[in-house]
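In these records, each integer encodes one residue's backbone shape. Here is one protein:

___
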Amino acid sequence: MKKYCKAYFLKDLRQFPDWSEQQDESPLGDEDVVYLWDDFTVVKSPIVPEKGIIWQHVTPEWQDFCKSSLKFEIPDDLRYAY
């Protein structure tokens, strides 16, 4: 069960060297906001995380990019849920 996500502009995630996104009928632009979940998947909407997945290639390199470049981490006050 996913518990935490954080919003980012897509342009920031596209900085990852191996980035490729799953596209549907509507292309996404750099200024679109997407959501990075605690399992390191990326979706279009935080409401229904199983739909609108645009990134699910979770690798150690991706996790490192999220932590170091995007500064993604679960806030201290929410860590108790894990």
